[in-house]
Structure formats: structure tokens, C-alpha cells
# Entry
Amino acid sequence: MGADASGAVLEIEQGLTGLGTSFRDAFAAAPTEQALRDAHARVLGKKGDLTALLKRMGAVPAEARKVLGEQVNALKAEVESAFAARLAALARASRDAELAATPFDLSLPARVGTPRGHEHPIARVRDDLLAIFRDLGFVVASGPEVEFEANNFTRLGFPPDHPATDMQDSFWVSPGILLRTHTSNVQVREMMSRPPPLAVVSAGAVYRRDDDVTHSPMFHQIEGFLVAERVSFAELKGVLTAFAERLYGPGTPVRFRPSYFPFVEPGAEVDVGCVFCALPDGTRGGCRVCKHTGWLEVLGCGMIHPVVFEHVGIDPEKYTGFAFGLGVERVAMLRYGIPDIRLLFENDPRMLAQFG
Ligand code: DAH
# Structure
């Protein structure tokens, strides 16, 4: 037997004695799976004590290898079984601890309340506006968003070459059919389907080729009209003044400025006293919102043009009436201080949640 060979035998024999059963205590003392795995690695890992002995087996002469090999392998088997037993014991202990712990009821509802949805600010303002006119005695009607050119333009007295009828300004579906550019189509449809007296209000989406800070290609309008015998501009002023006071508070000043719409004569634009710079004495200081005029433009209106009555089969000698139209977004933007109309339609919950 050479020097190295007998050295290897001695080394392994001493190593086995040294290792003894110390691993058992180390495994038993390991409080966690990780600690157990670390202890195991110190014996049988790459740099483990027993691994080192196994590596030395190559140097053991053939006649000693059988006996020594059996001893080393037996120890290795012991280490593995002690490790497995302790691993199972740790798993059992943690399972028992889980079972013994305060029960966790999976069926309990989550502690964070489910977030509640709410109406879109446009829907809220629309309904508020409709409610005011309903209170004033108007009936709520609706009309289609895809409309005949005749109901959107022609019967309302738009000349065939009016710029609003242009490809650039309206969304055409096919010749003679377009996305309505205003809710005034409801006037035509209602007047054609029922005889006067009529007091109707309607709300809905309208479409125009417009897209900037204050214009969206889709927006919403409220349309109202009243037709009966002997209706005058006085009734128009009365209804719209009552509307302004209900929307912006008693005493809200209202002014009517002459304006042109093909389907009314006379036509007017209505301003209300700026609600942002109103002073206690009823005057207004002027501000950025009203561009220092003290007035906010809110709607268009007028006495229904006789030509409209003729187009829908109502006798203009017997009946008169007034009509008005306003933008819902404008009212919402003023009410909530929203600076850009596009914010209303981006559907960003961080924006919409502010109106819950
Ligand atoms: N249709 C008009 C527009 O879209 C608004 C309007 C003005 C409606 C005067 C009316 C009215 O009924 O009388 O700008």
C-alpha cells in the first residue's frame, strides 16, 4: 500500500468517526426548512464534509474499498434519511400551526368596498337640464342620431348650399343621410307627428367636424320648442328666464341678443350674467371665464319661422311658437370648471372619479 493510499484510508476512517452522528443534532436543531437545507449542505453539499470523504474514495486501494465504501455509503444513507425525516416533520409542524391558527374565512367579503360607479358628468347635467324643462311643463322626446338631410336641414329652412350642409362640416352616411348636426331635427319630427299645442324638450348626441379645446366631433344638445295659438316672444323670454334662474339661481340676469338661425325669425342668442364674477350687489366684476364681459353665452333661440311650419304641415296663420337649443358640455364645463371638452370623453377614471 502506497503512502497516499494508506493516508486516504486513515483520512476517511477518521472523517467517518469525526462526522459520527453530529448531523442528527444539527438537523434536529434546524428551526426552518432553510436552516435544515444549510445543515444538509454542510454534510453532503459540494463542499460538504461527507462529500469530501466520498471524493477521497478514489485513492483507496481496492482491498480496502469494499469495507470502507460500505461504511461511507451507509452514513450517506443515514444522512439522507435523517434529512428527509426532519423535512417532513417541519412541513407537518407548519401545517399544524396553520390549522391551529385563527380560522381564515375565505367567504368573507373583501374589506375594501367595491368602488361604486356613478353617472358621467354629461349625463348628470343633461338630466338636470331636462328636469328643469319638465318642471316647466315640457314633454321629453327623443330623435335619431342618423337622420335624413330633410329633417336636419331642409325642413328647418336651410338653403341647399348652406355651409353647414358641406362635406367639411357634417358627417355624411350616404347621400341624403347624415349624423345629425343638432337636436333641432326633433322639432321637425315631433311637429310632423302630433298637432299643436306642443311643448317638447329633447336631449342627445350631435355630430360636427370640429375638434379643439371647446369643440368635440360628438357633443350633446338640449332642444326645446313650444307651439300653440298666440305664442309670442314674451313667452320665450319668460320660459328661458325661468330656466336661467333655476339653473343659476334666482335673480340671474338674462339678456337676448339678435342672432341668425335659418329656422327662427326673429332669432336670438341668450346670455346669462357670469356666475363666476357676480358680486353681492348684482353687478359683475368681469373675469377670464366671461372674457371680462360679465356675460356667458348659453343658448340660441327664436320664434319658429313660418317656413318651418309650412314644411311640417302646421298652419302658420293659426299657430306661432318658439324654439331654443343649448350645448350640454358648455353647461357642464362651466359648472365643474373643466377647461378642455376632450377631458369629458377620454374616459379617464382619474378625471371622472372627481364627479362621483
Ligand atoms: N340648432 C342650433 C345649433 O345647433 C341651436 C338652436 C338655435 C336651436 C336656435 C334652436 C334655436 O331651436 O331656436 O347651433
